[in-house]
Amino acid sequence: MYQSITANDLEQELKESMQNILDVRDAEAFIEGHIPNAINIPINELPEKLATLDKKKAYTIICYAGGRSERASQFLAAEGFDVTNVMGGMGAFRGTTTK
Fold first, then answer.
1. How far is the first Cα of the chain from the last one, in angstroms, to the nearest whole number?
2. Burial class (CB in 10 A: 0-12, 13-18, 19+), 52
3. Cα 32 to the chain's mean position, in Å?
């Protein structure tokens, strides 16, 4: 099981504390703009890069619209990770981004 939050909720959380953001969009989309300090692992690379993630950390998973992040959240939760899916994704995120 995993939780879901809205992009607006994430914006508020980022104002209060640092989050471990995992952006599962492809590298080109990530380079165009992402949340500062986000980690980029495209969803199709998640299985092979699983060992780079720390099960002791909670991750907030984001993509562009919410579909890929939902699939990634299901996968990671099944692997024993503490994850939260961002509904609406970067398309709905109005907070600070960087290139």
1. 32
2. exposed
3. 16
Neighbours of 76 (CB within 10 A): 22
Model confidence over 8-42: pLDDT tens digits?
999 999 999 999 999 999 999 999 999 999 999 99
- Separation CA 51–CA 64 (nearest Å): 24
pTM to 2 decimals? 0.96
Alpha carbons within 13 angstroms on the beta-carbon side of residue 93 total: 26
CA distance 51 to 30: 21
Spatial contact of 17 and 36, defined as CB atoms under 8 Å apart: no
Active-site residue, 23 included: no
Among 7, 35, 63, 83, the one annotated catalytic: 63
